[in-house]
Each structure stands twice: as C-alpha cells, then as structure tokens.
Amino acid sequence: MKKNMLRSVWIWVVLLAIAVMVPREVPGCSTFALRKGDGLLFGRNFDFFTGGGAILANPRGLAKTALVFPGENAASWTALYGSVTFNQVGREFPMGGMNEAGLVVEMMWHYTAAYPERDARPGMMELQWIQHLLDTCASVAEAAVAVEKVRIMPMGSRLHFHLLDPRGDEAIVEFIGGKARFYAGKDLPVPALTNQTYEECLAARSAFRDFGGSKPLHATINDPDRFVALAAAVQRPGKEKRMLERAWAILEEVHCDIRENPTQWRLVYDPRKLEIHIRTLKNPALRRVRLKDFSFACADGVKALDLDEGSGDLGKLFAGYSPAFNEGLVKRTFAAYRQAGFQEGISDMHLAFMAAYPNGMTCR
Question: Could you tell me if 58 and 100 are in contact, meaning their C-beta atoms sit under 8 angstroms apart?
C-alpha cells in the first residue's frame, strides 16, 4: 500500500513539473545547423522567463527506468554513451545536450504537438526522451529507429526536436495528430527550427524578401518571421572569419529581448570537435565545455556545474554530483516558476520527491 502511494506521488510530481513547462504565447527558441567546408556547428537560443539551470556530465553504464503514468509500460535502458546536458527541472530531464558520439538533441515549444495515444510500446515523458536518445543513440539514423520503438506519453508540455550528428546528418522530429514525423535529407531543406510546424514555416518563406515575396526579414521576432530570418542567415555567406563567430552572429539576429521572455542561453555545439560553447544572460562571457575533459565512466558518477558559473574552459570546475545539488536546482527553478505564477501550489514535499527521482539509479 505504501509503495503504491509513493508511486502515485511520483506520477503527480512529474505531471506538475510538466504543467509548469507550458509557456505563454510569446516568442520562443531557435535552432539551426551551420556548415562550411569540414566545419559543422549547431546553434541554439533558449528563450524563457527564467534562465537558471545546471550543466551535467552524465556517465555511460547507468541503468534507468522511465517515470510513467499508472498502468504504463515504463521504458528501461542502460546508457551506452556519456553526455553533457543542460537541465532546469532536475537531473534526467534535460532541455538538450550532446553525447560523446557527437549526437546533439535539442527541443523547442511546439504549440500544436500531439503525442501518440497509449499503445504497446514503452513510454516516457518528453524531457526524459531527450536523455534517452543521448544515452542510447550515436547518430540521427539510430534516433530514427528509437522514435518508433518508444513513445512519448501525451502530457502537457508540447515540444518538437532538432537533431544533428557529426556526419552532418540532421533531423527534425514532430508529433502531429498522434503520429511522429521525421524530417531528414531532402525533406529538410532548411536546417533550422523555431516554434511552428516545420511545414508551416517552409510554406511561409515565399512571402518574404530573399524568397520571392515582399515582406521584409526581421519584421517581427514571432514565427514564421524568425524561421525565415534563420533560413536566410544560414544560406548567406558570412563576413566573419570563423564559423563560431558566424554562429554567434546568427543567434544574435534572432535573439529575444522581451523582458518577460528573453534569450537566457546561447549555445553552439561542435559535434565533430565534441565541444559546447556557452553564453548566458547572467554570464555573457564566452565559455566552453569539452567532452574530452570527462571520463564518463559510471564509477566516476555524474558531474555538475551551475550554468551561470565560470569562465574559459569549464571542465576543471565541475564537481561531483550530489542529491543536495539536484534538490537545490529543483527548488531554485520552481521558486522562479512560482514567482511567475506557475503552479504556485506545488508543495515542498512534491519537489523533494522530484529531486530524489535519480537517486536509485545504479551502474550496470
């Protein structure tokens, strides 16, 4: 009886956490891939009302079971790859990241997303699905298989996803009418994503200058304007001498400075060099995380760092993860959510359960 009650608490904690993740109808995030010669970069703006978070180095070899609804078939897996992720609502629920094979997975709000109804496939929540891909896939091709084998549970946080691997293979994953849509190859003519359906954004290009229409670029920072600005930017020769400088310039073009929803994180992934370049609103200094600075051995455990800390190369600043670190992250995040009027009634007990979720995971 006690075990069932605890399980119910866990489930409601997840539901509450996801409910607060649903944003208001405001300009949102942007991602793009940039290619030049042998260079390959992935840029990401995270626009939200709060920017607190953590960078986590997650080891390979950790056995995991997803947190699901009662009666669901919970997905179970063992992490095959270590990863570096950017987390706001706690460990195992990242907004995005890159694994040691060079696979990048990032998410953005997608207001019309509709996930599959319950079926025989094992399930997991949206953010944990990101961690699952980073744990188990080395490439976009492997992620395409994983999309069909597991199911995102239909919950309140509507997202779509942008993927890139070091071969240059790229994909956008959306869930429309309960079915997964996987855009890759010739079906992905523009290496960018914002917040509307990918097909809607593609169709909107013809109304804009540079694409045959009359509407000026950067007319607003809403969709589809922001997507079309990205489409023009990634195909336009840059004046910058270095690709990284070009990536920062593109992120600046589509950044948001609206007070209620500013660009909090600017990230540039290099999946070939296995590096992540970071700037945040609170710490705009250019910083770098190199995956080679971590062993990712399961016995070495998770490593953690506050997202706004440090300068230069950050690897030496990471400390051993502790349950207290995760508890602090969850409490700070939900304090910001409460201040913004999101789920003000969620209790400290619920937050404690959520923060403790990863504690039972063991090496296999």
Answer: no
Return the number of other C-beta atoms located less than 10 Å from residue 6's C-beta: 11
Does pLDDT of 304 surpass 90? yes
Q: What is the pTM of this model?
A: 0.93
In the numeric block, which tokens belong to residue 105? Answer: 């997975």
Domains detected in the chain: 2-190+260-359 (3.60.60.10)
pLDDT digits (tens, 9 = 90+) for 146-176: 999 999 986 668 999 999 999 999 999 999 9
Q: In 3D, which of 45, 33, 37 has the Cα closest to residue 231?
A: 33
* Dist CA 341 CA 347 (whole Å): 14
Are residues 194 and 201 in contact, defined by beta-carbon separation less than 8 angstroms? yes
Give residue 85's pLDDT. Answer: 99
Which two structure tokens, joined as six digits, stand for 113?
Answer: 């997303």
Q: What is the tens place of the pLDDT at every residue in 209-219?
A: 999 999 999 98
**DSSP codes joined into one string, 19-33:** HHTPPPSS---EEEE
Residues forming beta bridges with residue 320, ordered by sequence position: 303
- Which sign, positive or negative, has the C-alpha torsion 342, 262, 191, 111? positive
Per DSSP, 299 falls in state G
Across the beta sheet with 62-65, what order do the strands follow? 76-78, 62-65, 362-363
Work out the angle at residue 51's Cα, subtended by the Cα atoms of residues 49 and 54, and round it to the nearest 5 degrees: 150
CA neighbor of 86 nearest in space, from 279, 294, 324, 353:
279
